[in-house]
Amino acid sequence: MPDAAITRQVAQRLRELYEHHRTLDPREVASFYEPGRGTYPPELAGAEADRFGIALATVDDGALHTVGDDTTPFALQSISKVFAYALAVEDHGEDEVMRHVGVEPSGDAFNSIVFDERRNRPYNPMVNAGAIVTSSLVRGRDGAEKLDRILDAVRRYAGNPSLRVDEETFAGEMQIADRNRAIAYLMRSQGMLEGDVEETLELYLRQCSITVTCRDLAVAGATLANGGVNPVTGERVLGRARVRGVLSVMYTCGMYDFAGEWAFEVGVPAKSGVSGGILAAVPGKMGIAVLSPGLDEYGNSVRGTRVCREMSVRLGLHTFAAESEDEILRASAS
């Protein structure tokens, strides 16, 4: 069990972080996301704009520290790409998956109809085109069995067997799936995607409609940060040899066309979703989850990005950080 004094200190720091970023100027927000219905302007967001939660899960004992809307369910959306990619790599190995989906940042929006023409494949598994192919690579007799395996994997990462697909969210996503459908049919016409396009599209949108809470997502992040072992359940969910590749793709491609700035400023593997969630994994330390539906022009949570940036600076979480801001302040005061 974590030391009580440490727990109180973490709780205090989280509360300070939460209050610091609680105010959100609508002018700083490009859109809000309503599950199943796409984006809508800030002035129509209503109570959705106030949803804000932060959760941390440590790798040593799985201790959870939360503040705000930590139990509010939301759709994984693009964060689900991480788990489907990891499962595809477990099924086929990195080399085989690389034949179908690259690992290069595209520099384009997450839903761009742009491919790596030299190798005739999507650029990476964190954009929609790559994720559709990745989902199709998950082993299973049909889409239902593939979905069962993806859902089971997410449950084991999060340590929560009750996670499910929200059918209302899925139905709404199917109504606005024209662009993803165009991407999928174009890929099949060019030999990048095999099988029934509609079945694959349904699989992809159902995996995006799996709902989690900040608590679930923080534990999932801690599982990745812990070399693939869930620190709460003790179960190995992903082989250690596969974790490096998953985290690498998250680091370079996980934040859409903001990935370069994220790597420069925050410096930890992460994945965002248009429902306002951010999943971050700090290897050997913790998993971080933030929920805040106000999105910037890249489709990333405005509050979530700022929270992760401040945590990285103050705690020295950046992959290449020599010391944290807190350490610098303590040294200067001594």
Structure characterization notes:
It is a single chain. With 334 residues, the protein is of the alpha+beta class. It has a single domain, classed as Beta-lactamase (3-Layer(aba) Sandwich). The chain has helices at residues 4-22, 80-92, 94-100, 128-137, 143-158, 167-175, 178-189, 197-208, 214-225, 240-253, 259-265, 302-315, 325-333; strands spanning 31-33, 39-40, 53-58, 64-68, 74-75, 211-212, 270-272, 277-282, 286-291, 294-295. Strand 7 (270-272) and strand 8 (277-282) form a beta hairpin. Helix 2 crosses helix 10 (240-253).
Structure at a glance:
With about 325 residues, this protein is α+β, with helices and mostly antiparallel strands.
* Average pLDDT for all residues: 91
Q: How many distinct helices?
A: 13
Strand percentage:
5-15%
CATH class: Alpha Beta
Classified in CATH, the superfamily is: DD-peptidase/beta-lactamase superfamily
Question: How far apart, in Å, are the first and last alpha carbons?
Answer: 31 Å
Which outline best applies?
Answer: globular
The biggest sheet, with number of strands, parallel, antiparallel or mixed sense and barrel status, is: 5 strands, antiparallel
CATH topology: Beta-lactamase
User: How would you spell out the order of helices and strands?
Assistant: HEEEEEHHHHHHHEHHHEEEEHH
Estimated helix fraction: 40-55%
Q: Name the poorly predicted regions.
A: none
Q: Which structural class matches the secondary elements?
A: alpha+beta
Level-2 CATH architecture: 3-Layer(aba) Sandwich
Number of strands: 10
User: If you compute it from the alpha carbons, what radius of gyration comes out, rounded to the nearest whole angstrom?
Assistant: 19 Å
